């Protein structure tokens, strides 16, 4: 944004800053908090303290003191921003995202060569984040830096990069559950959690959501093994039941697929559509809510819904697939809207980078 655009948002920005920095005791700190937000929004390249202070016409040491040494607590800011975002958006779902931040020096905490979006493999940090998603758009509610195991094992390197001694390696799936727990402590709970197959293929993650009473719809790979649901109870040890991979089950129901346009046409992208079908299944071999003892043969596999997408109704492999524990009578249109909601985040990130870079 340029200075004129910022000026047009002056009243809104002041109200926002007063809200999220309300807990800060001193007015001077709140004023610098508002100036810092202005610096993040203004055009001008680097968003570190020195260049932002220069663009804002502020003493570098004053802005630096607010960021690095002032008594404000970023966790209170996160809590207030999350509550505000949830209130404004009225989310239909929360979506888990791994967002990469390109880095050019390996001394930055957690930076290593790893998957980095369109760049594929690149030196970057990765943050696990939770986003509220609705028809109005999306907003991050909470996020946490992923610290790779190679970093956590090198405490000297961690200390040099400013990583607190108590911070160690946790998987992305565990971090996501941690974020959900912290948001719950803030009084925020998701209507349903959406995640890609890095999370959906992880049994512990699905079990963690179920144990917390959180509905979920997660992507899975086409080789995930399921049991067709026949309407009769299925034991966890139903070894004689034929198990099939997702793509095999999908092939039997392709004739029922319906076409949905899930992303409208925009200035930069054509409309996106696909053919979808929902099939009742059981996930073979594992119960998400916990381990099953062979001494309890009557423990039943829970019924789930498999959602499958093809690019075309005739011809071509399964494009994407998801499994959910939402009610079996959930309309197909609702399942499709949830499963394809990631485009909101992609669009919002792109617009943010265009407006605030």
| Number of contiguous helices | 14
Strand content: 15-25%
Helix-and-strand structural type: alpha+beta
Oligomeric state of the chains?
single chain
Q: Which value, in Å, is the CA radius of gyration?
A: 23 Å
Element string (H = helix, E = strand): HHHHHHEEEEHHHEHHEEEHEEEEHH
Structural notes for this entry:
- Helix 3 (27-41) crosses helix 4 (49-56).
- The chain is globular, with a radius of gyration of 23 Å.
- Strands 1, 2, 3, 4, 5, 6, 7, 8, 9, 10, 11 and 12 form a twelve-stranded mixed β-sheet that branches.
- It is 38% helix and 23% strand.
- The termini are close together.
- It is an alpha+beta fold and 357 residues long.
Question: How would you summarize the topology of this molecule?
Answer:
Blueprint: H1 3-8, H2 10-20, H3 27-41, H4 49-56, H5 60-68, H6 74-89, E1 93-102, E2 112-115, E3 121-134, E4 137-145, H7 149-152, H8 155-161, H9 172-185, E5 193-195, H10 197-200, H11 203-211, E6 216-220, E7 225-228, E8 244-245, H12 246-253, E9 258-263, E10 272-283, E11 304-310, E12 320-324, H13 332-339, H14 342-356
Parallel strand pairs: 1-5, 5-6
Antiparallel strand pairs: 1-3, 2-3, 3-4, 6-12, 7-8, 7-10, 9-10, 10-11, 11-12
Helix pairs in contact: 2-3, 3-4, 3-5, 4-5
